[in-house]
């Protein structure tokens, strides 16, 4: 019988180690985006009414703020290593992360590619918040924007904000 602490079944220094089942993240995101949209509709007072373009933009902005703030809180508590396909910078506080196989977008499908790209935008808001939160927990204030032009690729643009003196 040994009293030594057993080694965990994973190696924490392995950049490919998965600590949370990615299916759990997929399912969470699948449920969070429609929930944020329903909450945004309710907070804007649009229960069953036909939405105009202005109302849809307002609802979209409310949903964005909800998903981004939740992602920010998650990112503050979690700084996870993620292998990306490309990182570019202009050395002036702007970074562009490119992931050509962004998992949350991998299973999206619609009748047309353009419709899928428009709908995919909402699924990028939570990860933007996670990135902002992770950077914020390291003392880096930044804005994060994401876009996709072809599924399942995602591009995140990170702009660091200089502290005000």
Q: Which helices and strands, and how do they pair?
A:
Blueprint: H1 22-43, H2 53-77, E1 86-89, E2 94-99, H3 113-120, H4 122-137, E3 142-147, E4 154-160
Antiparallel strand pairs: 1-2, 2-4, 3-4
Helix pairs in contact: 1-2, 2-4
Structure description:
- With 165 residues, the protein is of the alpha+beta class.
- It contains four helices and four strands; from the N terminus they run H-H-E-E-H-H-E-E.
- Helix 1 crosses helix 2 (53-77) and helix 2 (53-77) runs parallel beside helix 4 (122-137).
- The model has no long low-confidence stretch (mean pLDDT 81).
Low-confidence stretches: none
The proportion of residues forming helix, as a percent range, comes to: 40-55%
Main sheet specs: 4 strands, antiparallel
Number of helices: 4
Short description:
The chain is of the alpha+beta class and 165 residues long. The protein contains four helices and four strands.
């Amino acid at each position: 019988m040994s009293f030594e602490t057993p080694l965990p079944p994973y190696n924490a220094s392995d950049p490919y180690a998965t600590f949370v089942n990615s299916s759990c993240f997929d399912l969470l995101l699948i449920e969070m985006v429609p929930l944020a949209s329903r909450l945004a509709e309710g907070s804007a007072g649009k229960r069953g009414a036909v939405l105009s373009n202005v109302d849809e933009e307002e609802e979209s902005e409310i949903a964005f703020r909800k998903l981004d703030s939740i992602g920010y809180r998650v990112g503050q508590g979690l700084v996870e290593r993620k292998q990306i396909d490309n990182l570019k910078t202009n050395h002036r506080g702007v970074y562009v992360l490119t992931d050509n196989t962004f998992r949350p977008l991998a299973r999206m499908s619609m009748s047309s590619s353009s419709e899928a790209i428009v709908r995919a935008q909402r699924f990028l808001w939570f990860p933007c918040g996670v990135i902002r939160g992770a950077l914020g927990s390291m003392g880096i204030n930044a804005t994060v924007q994401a876009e996709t032009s072809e599924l399942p690729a995602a591009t995140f643009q990170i702009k660091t904000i200089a502290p005000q003196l």
